[in-house]
Amino acid sequence: MNPATPQASRKIGLPPEQFAAAFPFHFALDGDLKFIQAGDTLKRICADVQTGVALEKIFHAMRPRGEVSRQWIEINRAHFFLLEHRKTNLLLRGEFMQLPEQNLWLFLGSPWFTDSSEISALGLRFEDFAIHDPVADMLQVFQANKIALEDAKKLADKLTAQRAELRLANERLRQQEAETNKLALIAARTDNAVVLTDSSGKVVWVNAGFTRLTGYTMEEVIGKTPGSLLQGPETDRATVQYMHNQLSKGEGFKAEIVNYNKAGRKYWLASEVQPIRDEAGQIVNFMAIQSDITARKNSENLLLETSALQRAMLEGAGYAIIACDKQGIIQLFNPAAERMLGYTAAEMVGKLTPAAFHVPEEIAARAKELTAELGREVPVGFATFTAKAELGQPDQREWTYVRKDGSRFPVLLSVTTLFAERGHLIGSLGVASDLTERKRDEEKLRNTVSELERFNRVMLNREARVLELKRQINQLLAAAGRPPDFSSVTETNPSTKLE
Amino acid sequence: MYGMVNKAVEDMVIRHHGEAVWEQIKAKAGVTVDVFMSNESYSDDITYNLIGAASEILKTPAEQILISFGEHWVLHTATEGYGNLMHAAGRTLPEFMRNLPSFHSRVTMIFPKLQPPHFECTEITSQSLKLHYYSHRQGLAPFVVGLMQGLGFKFKTPVTVCRIAAKDAGADHDIFAVNWSPASAS
Q: CA–CA separation, A13 vs A473, rounded Å?
């Protein structure tokens, strides 16, 4: 005890049992610092605390520093002492008090713990502590602080993880925002109409392109389905049904459909519609990108009509129409050509050149003729047919065609070269008419004329003789003094004279 | 209530039903606290709302949840957090029960904002006692039943707990008759 501590006003002593209960970890030493008494709990925990055993053999001085001795105790009496039990490492915190009249040293103290596990490890119970001893409560404080520290660490870890997540999320958000801005810019500026609807198909947003295309402003279309405003009499019902079915199934689609703008003008619309889903996979919007394809549709229709006309001309023509590429390979062989030559288009197209049904000698002769006419060497072959046409000159002449069965017939062939847009040769087109009939007719005509001429000659001689006879009759009648019977045949009517 | 109570509810739900269910319960209860600090005081409403939401989402009566929570409190919360001190408080169920009031009083001293229940044990025999439970909170009697059952498991001493006086039925406080087999408690 600190010598400066005031004295108690009354002398109070405790009976040994109560003293032992109040100080279960106390011990008393004789003048040689050997145990003469110890608390029950201390003896239970530190079994080597026995009467007559020296303190220094059982305990080691932790605080104050030094060797266990009377001098060490006396010098440090004003401080607390911390002793370590050599065998169990139990720490005892307390103070030494000298009882001078008995030449004894009394140690009053309690175990010192910094972790609740130590109490358990030493096999101590709360009942082993004096009720006034706050050591057990201190352990609870330690434990509560330890748990609080663990909570704080958990919170810090969670906050650190959240911050990291937040940084990532921010980065993702920043990228998404940049992407969204770009997309928004594209959606706003594109010539295409862009429509965003809710999951039921009602418009929630349209871009300026939509207004340009349809004439409807965003305010006019919000909350309405695009179809209710834009479809009309020529809108194909089957396409509308298809679009409706795809939307019901939540699937995207592409469609081309006739729409009508606010002013009632009809136009063709190409529309690509895609569902937009949330993270749970639920459809939240549909987005449609639309463009006016009226011009393309008109061109397509014109092309279809032109194609149909061409097909009708090719198939219905009485002329053989044969087109070749620039190598001379036949690319087109119309039905009239099939009839004329006995080959099918399948046998000719992509396989043979017109040489298959020409007389080689005629080609050679024509090549020679052209060489002389054009002043350059015209090779024998397909070039023979196109040499003149390539110069832009008409090339129409008679040729002899050879049928598949070997029989021959005359044709009048007109060759035209085909040029692509930039003026380079892509092939030739030959149109041939069968001259067989014409030749036959010409022959027949020639024969008829010849017969008529002969008949005429016969008839002319016969008429001259009749006139002479009439004239002679008239002369005889005149000699008889009678008027002529054939007044038309007189001398005064020279027109009746035969030459 | 102190955060350790809510933390224990969280631990029990996650242990048996997973994080996702706990997040659902928290959302339903309108609780936005990320981490409950054991030594911080929170409004009692948070605990009541969490128990109510858990009852709805787990489709289990609140009373049953409170009983399970009492068992969980003893077997996990107290044992994992204060196991050494519980050990020091008693090696058998009767010994622990004898020390329970002072154990609770000690806790009260170190958590100044705590308004803990107060326990008293009377009529202690080798196989039974009467546990008197005084609390200003309503509806937590099933939690006490769970606590006793949990102690039964902890000390391997099967107990039967019967409420013989109920505060919500007009009694001054709740009283439970706790019985156990003397052989297993020795």
A: 211
List residues of chain A with CB under 8 Å from any CB of chain B.
Answer: 116-117, 119-120, 124-127, 136-137, 139-141, 143-144, 147-148, 151-152, 154-155, 158, 162
Q: Which residue of A has its CA nearest to B38?
A: A148
Per DSSP, what are the bridge partners of residue A327? none
Residue (of B162, B163, B161) closest to B149 by Cα position: B161
Distance CA B55, CA A146 (A): 32
Residue that the structure tokens 């459909």 belong to: A257
ipTM of the complex: 0.77
- B154-166: per-residue pLDDT in tens? 999 999 999 999 9
Nearest C-alpha neighbor of B16 from the set B62, B52, B63, B69 = B69
**Of the candidates B4, B85, B111, which has its C-beta nearest A139's C-beta?**
B85
**Any bridge partners for residue A109, and if so which?**
A94
For A59, left (φ over 0), alpha (ψ -120 to 50), or beta? beta
Q: Taking chain B, what is the end-to-end CA distance rounded to the nearest angstrom? A: 35
DSSP assigned state of A487: T
CA B134 vs. chain centroid, Å, equals 13
At A398-456, the pLDDT tens digits run 999 999 999 999 999 988 887 776 667 788 888 998 888 888 888 898 998 888 888 88
According to DSSP, the residues that pair with A358 across neighbouring strands are A401
Dihedral class, residue B170 (left if φ above 0, else alpha if ψ from -120 to 50, else beta): left
CA distance A87 to chain B (A): 22
Q: Select the residue from A120, A133, A145 to test the B interface by mutation, using most B Cβ atoms within 10 A.
A: A120
The full DSSP string for chain B is -BHHHHHHHHHHHHHHH-HHHHHHHHHHHT---SS--TTSB--HHHHHHHHHHHHHHTT--HHHHHHHHHHHIIIIIIHHHHHHHHHHH-SSHHHHHHHHHHHHHHHHHH-TT----EEEEES--SSEEEEEEE-SSSS-HHHHHHHHHHHHHHTT--EEEEEEE-GGGT-SSEEEEEEE-HHHH-
Minimal CA separation from A155 to chain B, in Å: 6
Residue whose pair of structure tokens reads 């806790």 in the numeric block: B107
**Is the per-residue pLDDT at A271 higher than 80?**
yes
First to last CA, chain A: 190
The whole-angstrom separation of Cα A376 and Cα A235 is 63
CA-nearest of A257, A21, A262 to A127 is A21
C-alpha A125/C-alpha B134 separation (Å) is: 26
* The pairing of beta strand A104-111 with beta strand A193-198: unpaired
**Per-residue confidence band for A186, with pLDDT thresholds at 50, 70 and 90:** confident
pLDDT in tens, A81-99: 999 999 999 999 999 999 8
pLDDT in tens, B65-114: 999 999 999 999 888 888 888 888 888 888 888 888 887 777 777 777 77
**pLDDT tens across B115-153, in order?**
778 888 898 888 999 999 999 888 899 999 999 999 999
Contacts of A162 in chain B (CB under 8 A): 34
Picking from B4, B85, B110, the nearest residue to A116 by CB comes out as: B85
Q: Is the pLDDT of residue A495 over 50?
A: no
